[in-house]
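User: Please predict the structure of the protein below. I'd like the answer in structure-token form so I can feed it into my own downstream comparison script.

Assistant: Understood. Taking the following sequence of 209 residues as input:
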Amino acid sequence: MHCVAILDDSAVSAMWPWGFAGEKGDDMLWLMLFMFAATTGPLDEAPPPRTHTLPAEWHGVWSGSLERVGDDPLTTMHLEIAPLEDRPGVTWRLTYGDGRNADVRDYELIPGVAADRYYIDEKNGIQLDARLAGDTLHCAFAMRETLAFSSYVLTDETITFEIAIFSTAATAESSVGEGENELVVTNYQPLALQRATLRRVMNTNDEPQ
């Protein structure tokens, strides 16, 4: 990777306090080019391929009812997880509802930069970072004036999906300590909590459970 940075005189003076010879502008440009070229690898170096994928215990078709906590069920929810055929990763096909009115979202879960990191590719330009911690896949994202925290928890029989949605507008602040030791805590209003307990109804080999 190669990179060029443009810094103002004060920033360069802080990095290179003993000054420059010749014309300051020319020396600054060549110095920055030299520093970045010297600290980067050759052009043919590439990051290692991302080959990890979601464990096979997650694979299958999972179904259940999506509900707003404390209220009646909203709709049915289905999650289909199967290995991709041409590259590492799995399908992450979410379906809300059934029949002709079903809302189908053909997402994919793709390996990220570390063994426990993934991202949900919505295949429309939106990608959501996710992290697998034990048997739980965590994801958080902001959209417009809301912040959402979602999780998928795998057990032997189920995947429990939960999403908590908060307003990004602060509702209150409180603090402890004074001066440099002051700790300020900001509160945010929860707007909705949805949950679904999904049971495996089919394996990836198309055998009904």
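That's the full token string. The chain has two domains: 1-46, 56-202.
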